Amino acid sequence: MTETIQTVDQLRALYPEAKPMVRQKQLCALDRHARRFVELSPFVVLGTCGAAGNVDTSPRGGTPGFVRADGEQTLLLPDLAGNNRLDSLQNVVECPAVSLVFLIPGVDETLRVRGRAEIVVSEALRQTFEVDGKRPRSVLRVAVDAVYLHCSKALMQAGLWDPETRIDRATLPSLAEMLRDQIGA
Questions:
Q1: What is the CA radius of gyration of the chain?
Q2: Does residue 1 carry a pLDDT above 60?
Q3: Of 18, 88, 100, 102, which sits 20 to 30 A from 59 (CA to CA)?
Q4: What is the value of pTM for the model shown?
């Protein structure tokens, strides 16, 4: 037997089929529960992949509802001020397929969304996302293909919201200290 999986058939031989409910819970649109989840979420992870296979996952945060559902088939994600690397946005230009994972503090379930994105720079749309006199430079408009609520197992196993699992921040050097060590900044 080989040490690595090389084919989908080998992979399927290793794992049982997903239960019917697991497959059925995937929707092709944002229902009222998904829209409410997005509305309450202050944090989303955006996954993208560029033409050369450059994969990126980027955390995005704001006040709850900073990402908006525009009907059942569209999500709007403002590109708030960041580090200007543009890894995710460059990937979207090259390959519009995206994946989003929404989290709500204290809720162990997550919402996963898959779709195709485009970068919108419309002044009118950007204005609707203005916060404290600042507008995003662009808004990611995601045409939704698949939506599903993901069970709580991973967050529960991680104890992500459990105060007992939190480390003392001093256990890890500050970002400034780590950057100084890594790049001399």
A1: 19
A2: no
A3: 18
A4: 0.91
